[in-house]
Amino acid sequence: MSENTPDESRPGDPEPGSAAVRLDQGHVQGDGGLPEQFQNPGMPPHEHRAADDDPKAAKRAERQVAGLFLLSMLGTVLFIVAYFMVDVETEVYVPITGQMSLANLLLGLGLALSLLGIGLGAVQWAKTLMPDTEVVEMRHPLRSSKESRDGFVDTMLDGAESSQLTRRPLLKATFGGAMGLFSLPLLVQLVGSLGPLPKKDLSTTMWTEGKRLMLDPEARPVKASDVTIGSVFHILPEGIMDIHGPDRLTQIGKATVLMMRLNPEDFQDTEKGRKAREWGYQGIVAYSKVCTHVGCPVGLYEQTTHHLLCPCHQSTFDVTNDCEVIFGPAGRPLPQLKITVDGEGYLIADQEFQEPVGPSFWERES
């Protein structure tokens, strides 16, 4: 017979059914029964606090709580005085953190002392002076009796019957309609306060076919012969400076373009690279300056690598491959503006942007 069989006992094994079995004591055959009633373990003896029996200890605890509340009051006064009396430009040296504003330091300390004093005072009050009585609440069924639940249902049915909703469908329909439409005024005010819908404003700019590329801030047109290899220009569409009113900055922000000139041989021999070269003019290319991540201005151009860099989150775009994202969180390339020249040799837009500029939004189609 195996040493692990229940019929074979070893020294030190408990008697079957007498106690819990340790995992290292082998197997014990139990009888599978449960006691008719569990013994009430009771509650541990109540330990009295010093303040419960000693008046001096209670008085001492009272003074401690009062002291903490006074500390909170001093912190509040310090905060108010620092807010009105200390110049925010005044600086002091603080170990570890270094130079910092004295006003900010005092405001932080005052608010911290105010909250800390109240919190510690409340805890000390509860632990030393508030009642420390232990109460036992006997368990009882929380569910209402069947009679009570049936009575509630009968009451609701009687109310529906007495209101005649069940016998007058016209009242039921009009009451439901009135209550349902009642929420519409609130929703209309909420939606209406959001302002006009953007419609196609997020997808369009002032760039249209034939508009000249104008230097910013000089507002003068640029000839292709003026753009040398390695140069970078900040460009806006012709006529944008004639806009007045709050819409001006919005249109400038959407239409701003970076223009640079590369050697045509520098473009990669890929579908994107060939497209970038063809949409340019003799190596001159123009791309939206608005980063496709969160809309920061892409303002850094590395001439040796032909990379455009957004300084906000370091998204990097490769100009030789149609501004493909090669690093950073941007999700798509910068939109390219197709350009050509007019009869006088000035650079002009050959068409509008073929995709929305800037960060993505839920209505984007591309």
TrEMBL record:
Keyword ATP-binding part of the UniProt annotation: no
Gene3D superfamilies referenced in this protein's UniProt entry, alphabetically: Rieske [2Fe-2S] iron-sulphur domain (2.102.10.10)
UniProt xrefs under Pfam families: QcrA_N (PF19297), Rieske (PF00355)
Entry similarity comment: Belongs to the Rieske iron-sulfur protein family.
Main location: membrane
Membrane topology of this protein: Multi-pass membrane protein
Its job: Iron-sulfur subunit of the cytochrome bc1 complex, an essential component of the respiratory electron transport chain required for ATP synthesis. The bc1 complex catalyzes the oxidation of menaquinol and the reduction of cytochrome c in the respiratory chain. The bc1 complex operates through a Q-cycle mechanism that couples electron transfer to generation of the proton gradient that drives ATP synthesis.
GO molecular function, one term: 2 iron, 2 sulfur cluster binding
Keyword DNA repair: no
Annotated SUPFAM superfamilies: ISP domain
Record-given protein name: Cytochrome bc1 complex Rieske iron-sulfur subunit
Cross-referenced PANTHER family: CYTOCHROME B-C1 COMPLEX SUBUNIT RIESKE, MITOCHONDRIAL (PTHR10134)
Entry GO terms, CC: plasma membrane
Domain Rieske: 254-348
Organism of this sequence: Janibacter alkaliphilus
InterPro entries: QcrA_N (IPR045603), Rieske_2Fe-2S (IPR017941), Rieske_2Fe-2S_sf (IPR036922), Rieske_Fe-S_prot (IPR014349)
Subcellular location per the Swiss-Prot or TrEMBL entry: Cell membrane
Residue numbers spanned by region Disordered: 1-58
Biased composition (Basic and acidic residues): 45-58
Source superkingdom: Bacteria
Keywords, alphabetical: 2Fe-2S, Cell membrane, Disulfide bond, Electron transport, Iron, Iron-sulfur, Membrane, Metal-binding, Oxidoreductase, Respiratory chain, Transmembrane, Transmembrane helix, Transport
Membrane-spanning segments: 65-85, 105-123, 170-192
Organism ancestry: Bacteria, Bacillati, Actinomycetota, Actinomycetes, Micrococcales
